[in-house]
Amino acid sequence: MATPALRMIDIAVNFTDGMFKGIYHGKNCHIPDIQVVLNRAWNAGIDRIIVTGGSLEESKKALAIAETDGRLFCTVGVHPTRCNEFEESGDPEKHFQELLFLAKEGVEKGKVVAIGECGLDYDRLQFCQVDIQKKYFEKQFELAYAMKLPMFLHMREAAADFCDILDRNKSRFLSGVAHSFTGSAEDRDKLLSFSNMYIGLNGCSLKTAENLEVVKGIPVERMMIETDSPYCEIKNTHAGIKMVKSTWPSKKKEKYDPECLVKGRNEPCLVRQVLEVVAGCKGIADINQLSQDVYHNTCRVFFPHDLDSAADALLTGKENQ
């Protein structure tokens, strides 16, 4: 029997970020290169990418980007650090309705696969205070309930309140992933106590020896992989770096070369490195099987029709035997 090919879905890419237009800290360093980045991703074994929306305007841009390629999808929602936009809009309910309208439009186009990025971030309260974050995190479950979509979630230093809100709203969403997870073993176990919750891992999840110990305790059937690019790369100083097997040449942004990665800018092809570190720290020898398992988890949440089609094909095949 042939070994299954490595197959991956990057569940979190911030293609709306200026770095993919060649803009770094307000300075234009190279041409926009999303297509170059995508080609590298497809060649690395990635067959789908979810573009993250973190505000109403960003969600509109994410949908527009997702419409440029059949393998791109997106989320619609408001990040905890941006929840002031509801109040600042002058009409929070109208703002919410615009999000709902955008989500409906995106679902009809086959592009919006989750509500988010939403949640709680107590690490950056300078951007949005706790009470506003909690109010509009809870409000966005109404979007998930109305659209029958999963939740794409953000949790930073806020596990207790985050899980309380999840618990109150557990009947209002189908499933969800707490992406870019960097929490403790206790935080992990709180999330895993919700049977419909998954944990998304990227370079920031694999920084320290303590992080790797926490990852060891996440069952394979409850994890997903991501880059959160252009952020959260696996750096040479990270504990997981010794388990990385795949590398790409890179150059500084000032010496941009489309054949190379931009040094310090994460991109989707590097999700393969996340898979390698997860395999290494969990002692999994068969990385191909790990990729298949994680791929299946991701489809179960964001692309359930794929699983339905596969099950139908299997059933049809058995009937024809």
Percent range for β-strand residues: 15-25%
CATH architecture title: Alpha-Beta Barrel
What is the CATH homology-level superfamily?
A: Metal-dependent hydrolases
Q: How many β-strand runs?
A: 12
Low-pLDDT ranges: 311-321
Averaged pLDDT, please?
A: 93
Give me the CATH fold name: TIM Barrel
Radius of gyration: 19 Å
| CATH hierarchy, class | Alpha Beta
Largest sheet: 8 strands, parallel
Strand order of the largest sheet: 1-4-5-6-7-8-9-10
Give the helix/strand class. Answer: alpha/beta
Count of individual domains: 1
Shape: globular
Secondary-structure element order, N to C:
EEEHEHEHHEHHEHEHEHEEEHHH
Topology of this protein?
Layout (H helix, E strand, L loop, with lengths): L7 E6 L9 E2 L2 E2 L5 H10 L2 E6 L4 H11 L5 E5 L7 H5 L3 H17 L3 E10 L8 H10 L1 H7 L3 E6 L2 H10 L7 E4 L5 H8 L4 E5 L7 H8 L6 E3 L24 E2 L9 E2 L8 H12 L4 H16 L1 H16 L2
Helix pairs in contact: 2-4, 11-12
Characterization of the model:
Helices cover 40% and strands 17% of the residues. It is α/β, with parallel strands linked by helices. Helix 2 packs parallel to helix 4 and helix 11 packs across helix 12. The protein is built from twelve helices and twelve strands. The protein is globular and about 50 Å long.
Concise summary:
The chain has helices spanning 34-43, 56-66, 84-88, 92-108, 130-139, 141-147, 159-168, 185-192, 209-216, 271-282, 287-302, 304-319; strands at residues 8-13, 23-24, 27-28, 46-51, 72-76, 112-121, 151-156, 176-179, 197-201, 223-225, 250-251, 261-262. The protein is an alpha/beta fold and 321 residues long.
